[in-house]
């Protein structure tokens, strides 16, 4: 259902006011229809990002740096295995696209915050979680059973990476009985801040980024659970209903459908209370994704005004 609370003009104004960090025309321009090759290139785009991220982390920090940051000795060796897995995923998807007669996307130029080991591993945890959600969200669109099986085999590995890194960060390694599927634009919105530019010859992908929505730990409680009041930031732009009065909602995405809660505008963003999922629904737990919307019945590209933001919700 298309939201009646936001006009097209309102969405355009919101998007135009968002930070102009996306130099990603090589990804988005003249985007084709979604095919299996498109989905494989979408997956390869994410695998390139993860692959380069881990290579950069391991190039900057040695085993001693990880031990000094509080990570036990096996973690460094296991992180090298994670990095090798991501490189293997890149090689596999590249070969699959070439075998299908498609042009595989090349590695882009990225901007990672590698200022410390702890920040780097926190980013790794988010990237792995987003990777799981990306594969899960794209699975239903894959027509080839062979490709679907291959994507599923990568998804399960990404999930193990995620659980291992979460445990190393003293987070619950498997905080929910369900993982969260994200669509192409939701994933792209989360990946875009890391991507500075891409080779112009890369095949374009049918994706767009929504305005950035962020969860700043410095402005929020250390532990977030259902019932916790949190603040989400809308940097350098505002979200308003077209009529200036209608309710804005925060929608937490789950596999059984979004869970809505009213969002109250404050300076620089919105406050909201983390909702409890309805009985029989997937819980809002673990690495959770929340968007701002003017609709409280469904979440689509037409009804999404900003986000997703990543919020870690304790079980």
Count of DSSP strands: 9
Please state the structural category.
alpha+beta
Shape verdict? globular
* Averaged pLDDT: 90
**Sheet with most strands:** 7 strands, antiparallel
Radius of gyration (Å): 19 Å
| DSSP summary: helix tally | 8
**End-to-end distance, in Å?**
31 Å
Low-confidence segments, given as residue ranges, are: 1-31
What is the helix/strand order? HHHHHEHHHEEEEEEEE
Strand content: 15-25%
Q: Report helical residue fraction.
A: 40-55%
Give an overview in words.
With 315 residues, this protein is an alpha+beta fold. It is 40% helix and 15% strand. It is built from eight helices and nine strands. It has a seven-stranded antiparallel β-sheet with strand order 3-4-7-6-5-8-9. The chain has a two-stranded antiparallel sheet with strand order 1-2. Helix 6 runs antiparallel to helix 7 (145-168).
Task: List key phrases describing it.
9 strands, 7-stranded antiparallel beta sheet, 315 residues, globular, disordered N terminus, alpha+beta
Brief sketch in words of this structure:
The chain is α+β, with helices and mostly antiparallel strands and 315 residues long.
Chain-wise SSE layout:
Blueprint: H1 8-17, H2 25-28, H3 36-60, H4 63-68, H5 73-99, E1 109-110, H6 117-138, H7 145-168, H8 184-191, E2 195-197, E3 214-215, E4 229-233, E5 248-252, E6 259-266, E7 269-273, E8 286-293, E9 304-313
Antiparallel strand pairs: 1-2, 3-4, 4-7, 5-6, 5-8, 6-7, 8-9
Helix pairs in contact: 3-5, 3-6, 5-7, 6-7, 6-8
């Amino acid at each position: 259902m298309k939201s009646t609370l936001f006009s097209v003009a309102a969405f355009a104004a919101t998007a135009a006011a968002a930070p102009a960090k996306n130099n990603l025309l090589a990804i988005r321009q003249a985007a084709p229809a979604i095919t299996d090759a498109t989905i494989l290139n979408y997956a390869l785009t994410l695998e390139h990002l993860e692959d380069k991220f881990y290579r950069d982390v391991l190039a900057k920090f040695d085993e001693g740096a990880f031990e000094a940051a509080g990570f036990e000795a096996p973690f460094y060796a296991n992180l090298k295995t994670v990095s090798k897995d991501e490189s293997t995923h890149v090689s596999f998807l590249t070969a699959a696209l070439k075998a299908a007669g498609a042009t595989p996307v090349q590695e882009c130029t990225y901007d990672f915050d590698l200022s410390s080991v702890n920040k780097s591993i926190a980013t790794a945890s988010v990237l792995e979680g987003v990777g799981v959600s990306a594969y899960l969200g794209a699975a239903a669109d894959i027509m080839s059973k062979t490709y679907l099986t291959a994507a599923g085999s990568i998804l399960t590995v990404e999930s193990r990476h995620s659980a291992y890194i979460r445990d190393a960060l003293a987070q619950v390694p498997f905080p929910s009985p369900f993982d969260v599927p994200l669509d192409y634009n939701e994933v792209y919105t989360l990946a875009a801040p890391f991507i500075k530019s891409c080779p112009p010859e890369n095949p374009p992908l049918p994706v767009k980024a929504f305005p950035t929505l962020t969860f700043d730990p410095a402005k929020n409680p250390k532990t977030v659970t259902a019932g916790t009041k949190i603040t989400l930031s809308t940097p350098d732009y505002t979200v308003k209903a077209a009529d200036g009065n209608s309710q804005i909602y925060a929608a937490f995405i789950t596999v059984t459908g979004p869970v809505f809660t009213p969002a109250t505008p404050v300076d620089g963003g919105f406050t909201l209370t983390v909702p409890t999922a309805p009985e029989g629904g997937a819980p809002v737990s673990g690495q959770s994704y929340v968007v701002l919307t003017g609709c409280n019945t469904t979440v689509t590209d037409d009804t999404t005004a900003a986000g997703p933001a990543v919020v870690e919700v304790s079980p």
